[in-house]
Amino acid sequence: MARAHRISVRYLHKILQPREATLSAWIRRHRLERIRRDLANPSLAAQTVSAIAARWGVLDATHVSRALKAELGQTAADIRRHGTHDHMEVPPAERHTTIP
Fold it and tell me: What is the signed CA dihedral for 87, 18, 21, 9, rounded to 10 degrees?
């Protein structure tokens, strides 16, 4: 990730430090947010949860719903059933976090 943004690994960790997040936690959170977005997308309803999760680098299908519930407050089935994520609790500090 540091290389992709043309910064040092040390600087990447410095950027994440005020957010009290490790790089792996940041990556996990953003993968789960993208999985959630795809699960809520009606045009992707024919794809399995496993296929959507795999697209974002999460290969353990049994882990997906538990991780979504723990991090975002809903299981994959909940997200699919409601078809939207507008009501989900995502702390403002975690929304649209980008690395310069």
Answer: 130
Which residue ranges of the chain lie beneath pLDDT 70? 19-20, 84-100
> 0.85 exceeded by the pTM?
no
CA–CA dist 44, 46 (Å, integer): 5
DSSP string, 13-54: HHHHGGGT--HHHHHHHHHHHHHHHHHH-GGGTTS-HHHHHH
Comparing C-alpha atoms, which of 93, 77, 90, 68 is closest to residue 18?
A: 93
User: In sequence order, what are the residues at sequence separation of 6 or more whose Cβ sits closer than 8 angstroms to the Cβ of residue 12?
Assistant: 1, 2, 5, 23, 99
Predicted pLDDT at 25: 84
- 68 neighbors 75 (Cβ within 8 angstroms): yes
**What per-residue confidence (pLDDT) applies to 87?**
41
